[in-house]
Amino acid sequence: MPLKPQFKYFLYRSDNLIQKNSKLWAIPLPTTRKQPQKATGISVTCGDYFSAVHSFLEQNRFEILTSAFSKSINRQIIPEEIEEIRVCLIKHGEFYHPSLIEAVLNKHSYKFVVNVAISVTGRDCIEREYSSLKRLGNDFSSSSIPEIYGYGEARVKKSRHTMSMFLGEWFEGFNEFHISHDGSDNKYKVLVWDSEKGNYFLSPDNTLELYRQAAMILTGYYDIETFEQIFPWHHAAGDFVVRLQNSEAELKLITVRQYAPMFAKERDENTGRDVEMILEALLVFLLNLSIRMRLDRLNGVGDIVWSDDIAIQGTLKGFFQGLRRKDSTGLFSDSFDTYFHDYLLSSCTEKDFYDLSSAIVNSYNPLAPEISVIRQNIKKHAEVLFNALTSI
């Protein structure tokens, strides 16, 4: 009988091996990075988690993993070829507990990610996210989001609780980032969490590039006719990751919790009305994008913080670059990015930006922790955004 791949389990780091008979195997998982698991009434240990991931990966003779593996190396493989599978639980997010999966073949390791939902909220989210990632992967040629390989469930032994999970692409060399305080010059900057080379602050140029790429990615996936968009997304949740190579930043979006219209659109035979709706909806998208882009949590878990004005510069640049790549459906005589820029300058004032931005903020959950921070900054934000628009 062929030997199955050997499983090894690690906690947070690839050198922190944990055994089934160790004390760590029996410790409960936190619900998120901040809350204990008991707050949800669900008790899941590290051992429960690793056993469930093991069960998911080996379902149907490792069907999902071997399919993903075969795509990675461009040839069909069978489970017996896999020598070892390393599962490293890397963090506890608001919705998921992701693990890095390293599958070893011929002494070479190939990396994937398995996103695991334990809480009721997380399980509600993960199935929707899997469908959204699958749809966007089929409908768009961009490689800014991970490819996904398969969805499934696994029951925790000794209980009736079930975890939901899916296997996806691992972005090698990419890391989470958050606004942090730099004691060397007493300024707040974007800090990249690099567990291998050590954390580092981004330069102003790379910070601008980070915001530019984030805005370009989100605008690229925005549908100007149906108003569908990726939302919600949060810097505070680590939804974007960055890699620095040869001093140049590259960004990826690792999660798509939902892809849906920001509001319903009533079809009208009047093309002029369609044009007006497209422009007004896009303005709402831009203003909301510009506000959300500036929000983060200090060091990823602290108080809500508001980025400096460099975020506006990057957001506008990325937004218009994203529009430039779009098919404007034949409704506009000029290129779409130029048409929309001219529309804003001819139709809007700084007060319009402030009034509409305030209305957008009023639509947010009033209990959301970022509301007070936004309200303190929204007037100045609208002014800077409008002035930046007139200068490009």
Characterize this entry briefly:
The chain has 392 residues and is α+β, with helices and mostly antiparallel strands.
How does this structure look, described?
This protein is an alpha+beta fold and 392 residues long. The chain folds into 2 domains: 6-169, Phosphorylase Kinase, domain 1, CATH 3.30.200; 177-390, no CATH class. The protein has 8 helices and 16 strands. The strands form 5 sheets. Strands 2-1-3-4-5-7-6 form a 7-stranded mixed beta sheet, with helices on both faces. It has a 3-stranded antiparallel beta sheet with strand order 8-9-10, with no helix packed on it. It is globular. The chain starts with 5 loop residues before the first strand and ends with a helix. The relative contact order is 0.09. Mean pLDDT is 91; it is low at 35-39.
Overall geometry: globular
Kindly provide the radius of gyration, computed on alpha-carbon positions and rounded to a whole number of angstroms. Answer: 23 Å
Instruction: Spell the H/E element sequence.
Output: EEHEEEHEEEEEHEEEEHEEHHHH
What share of the residues lie within helices?
Answer: 25-40%
